[in-house]
Amino acid sequence: MNTKHTPAPWNFNTNLLDSDGFIEVFHDGDADGTQPIADIHSGESHELGSFNRSKEETEANARLISASPELLEACKMVLSLSIQSTKMLEVRELIKKAINKVT
After folding, report:
1. Distance, CA of 55 to CA of 99 (rounded, Å)
2. Which of 18-27, 56-65, 92-101: highest mean pLDDT?
3. Greatest alpha-carbon span in the chain
4. Which of 2, 4, 44, 86 is 20 to 30 A from 38 (CA-CA)?
5. Domains of the chain: total
6. CA separation for the pair 86, 65 (Å, rounded)
7. Does the pLDDT value for residue 18 go beyond 60?
8. How far apart are CA 22 and CA 72, in angstroms?
9. In sequence order, what are the residues at sequence separation of 6 or more whose Cβ sits closer than 8 angstroms to the Cβ of residue 22?
């Protein structure tokens, strides 16, 4: 399966919850710096409407979105494995990495 999304790693910085009320999720694997992927909005009012999210919820959303490539890869691996597969340790490590990013 080929993917069309920006490849991992995706990251975010909780210090970037700025005055506009959003955290930027970015791709940080490029030699020339970071590439924005998504803005996670919090409690600011703007043309899309008003949001009422806490800083903690906004950060949790950023963690979940930034873990998406790893979660997708883990799911693909699980689907391709048999129960006795020797790749199970690799899958568990990838799942742990994604869960740690989200929690």
Report:
1. 20
2. 56-65
3. 53
4. 2
5. 2
6. 29
7. no
8. 24
9. 39, 40, 41, 42, 44, 58
Domain extent for 49:
1-66
For helices 68-80 and 88-102, the axis angle rounded to 10 degrees is 150
Are 67 and 59 in contact, with CB atoms under 8 Å apart?
no
Residues 6+ apart with CB under 8 A from 88: 81
Task: Check pLDDT > 80 for residue 67.
Answer: yes
Quick one: pLDDT band at residue 94, thresholds 50, 70, 90?
confident
Task: Quickly list DSSP for 15-77.
Answer: GG--TTSEEEEEEEEETTEEEEEEEEE-S-EETTEE----HHHHHHHHHHHHTHHHHHHHHHH
On whether both 57 and 17 belong to a single domain, the answer is yes
- The confidence score (pLDDT) of residue 26 equals 86
Residue 3 has pLDDT above 70, yes or no: no
